[in-house]
Amino acid sequence: MNRKGSKYFTIWWFVCWAFVLGGLVISASRFQNIIDVSSMDADLLASRVTDCIVDKGKLNFDINKEPDVFSLCKFAFREEKSYFLGIEVYNTTNCKEVPENEEGFEIECCPALKKYYFGSERLQDRCINLEGIKTTYMPDCKYKYVYATGQNEINYMIKIIGGTDER
Amino acid sequence: MRRLLFKRNRLNKRGLIFDAVIFLIVNIAFFAMLFLFVRNSATGPNVKEQILAKQVAMFIDAAKNNTIVELNIGEYKEIAEKNKINNFLRINQTEGKVITALSGESYEYPYFSNYSINTTIQANFLRIEIT
Q1: Considering only CB atoms, which chain B residues are within 8 Å of A27?
Q2: What tens-digit pLDDT sequence spans chain A (167 residues)?
Q3: Rg of the Cα trace of chain A?
C-alpha cells in the first residue's frame, strides 16, 4: 500500500470532476426545452384571428363593441397567463408605409381608434411596450396587419397581435 | 497483469503504474457516463415526447374546422413499446393539453383552440379529427 497517497487521486481531481459534472447537469437541464415553438405558436394565434375576424374583406364584428373572439375563432385561453391577443383598429387614412430595412416596411399609424386586449397582462406589456425589440429569453410576439371594411362601410386597418409564453 | 503491476510496483515504490491504470479507468468511466448522459439528454425519449406533444398541439391550433390530420408516429410508437408504455399520447380537452409519455415521465403542451378532437391510432398513423 502506498502510504504517501496516490499521485493521481488527489482531492483536486475529485473537485474537477464535480465541477465538470455539475456544469454539464446544469447546462443540460437549462437547455432541456430544445424545441422552442413559442414564435410559431404566437404566429398561429395571430393568423387564426386574422382569418376569423375578417371575411372576404369585411370585418366580422362591430368596432365599437369588444369582439367575442373566443367564440368567433373557437378559442379558449384555459391558461390565461400563457397567451396574449390584441386587436387594434386604425383609420386607414392615418396610416402610411415607412421603409424600414431589408426585411420590409413598417406601418406607421396615428393612435388607434380602438384597442382590445385579451389574456396575460404581463405578455401585453411585452408585446405592446416592447414591440420591435428582439430578445432571446423573453416571450415572442407576432404582428399581423389586415385591411378590412367595417360594418359601417368605413375602411380600417386592423393590427392583430399574438403572444405566447409557452415554449 | 496484476502480478506484473505488483512487480512494477515493487520496483517503483510509489506504485505509479497501478495508480495510473486505475486513474485512467476511472476517467474513462466518468467521461463515458457523461457522454451517455448528454446523448440521452439530446436525443432520448424526453426530447421525442416534447417533439410529439408540440407537433400535435401545433396541428390542432393550425387546423380549421372539420379537418382530419394523419401523422406518422411509427418512431414514437417504437420507443413507447420499448419502454412498455401503452397510452403514450393523450389529449385532455378540458384543460386543452396534449400529453405524451415516452419515458417514465410525461410531457404536456397546451393548445388554445376550443375544438372537439377525436384521436385514433391505426398501425403507425395517428388520425386527429378536428370538429
Answers
A1: none
A2: 445 566 777 888 888 889 888 888 888 777 666 678 888 999 999 999 999 999 888 998 888 889 888 888 888 887 767 899 999 998 887 777 777 666 666 677 778 889 999 988 888 888 888 877 777 677 788 999 998 998 888 889 899 999 988 77
A3: 25
Residues 6+ apart with CB under 8 A from B51: A35
Looking at the predicted complex, does its ipTM rise above 0.95?
no
Q: Residue type for B91, please?
A: I
The set of cell numbers assigned to B38 is 448528454
Chain B residues 23-62 with CB within 8 Å of chain A: 23, 30, 34, 37-38, 41-42, 46-47, 50-51, 54, 58, 61-62
Mutate to test the interface with A, among B91, B112, B113 (most CBs of A within 10 A): B112
